[in-house]
Amino acid sequence: MTNTYIISLGGSLIATQQGIEVNFLKEFREVIINQVSKGDRFFIITGGGQIARTSIESANEIVALNNEQKDWIGIAATRLNASIVRNIFSEYGYEKVVHNPSEEIKTDKPIIVSGGWKPGHSTDFVAAFLAEKHNIKTIINLSNIDYVYTTDPRENPEATLIKQTSWSEFQKIVGTQWEPGLNAPFDPIASLRCAESTTRVIICHGKKMTNWVKIFNDEEFEGTVIQ
Ligand code: UTP
Fold it and tell me: Does residue 223 contact residue 144 with C-beta atoms inside 8 Å?
């Protein structure tokens, strides 16, 4: 059976302050093209990562910015990352980086890449919106954590990892408020949207590819499932 998947690709996997994550992107490209050769299709939504956050902070040191200004800086970072990811998929990718996921996309290309859309949320919301629009039941959220924890494990040794949870429980962890540059396992505004549309989100460590490719084969994997 062939499927359409939505991947929310954390910006920290694409680029860090040290530069573009070339080795990760090479491997990611191979994995996705391998799935495409089996007939699968993908929406890939790219985050802005550390570059979005430091760009927002630096501009804000020069002059105090409002939240909307901060978000537009973040969106620019997500779109740069989207352009990198779209172009490495060459002939497999829809020609344009999607800026507005509510617009109709006419293409038979198997990979569509989007960055951020508009202020008020992160790219996780773009993934949630596309999932609802295209009736796709699962979002694969790849970032730099293996699991969601009850609290931040770097600050609290009592934090326990969560394998499976509900949207209402998850909202107790991330809250319901948006803040530009927020670093949450899945954005609270996107979480509200997923809860309404009963979309399932799987959170996995993006660099552990032999783990998350198991999702495509319906095998057991390590990660947190929110539904
Ligand atoms: P993301 O938060 O999506 O990048 O966008 P990230 O932090 O790399 O994603 P995760 O956490 O790994 O999933 C970076 C910033 O861009 C702005 C926000 O300020 C966000 O914090 N943004 C992004 C928007 O305002 N709207 C969007 O649709 C997307």
Answer: no
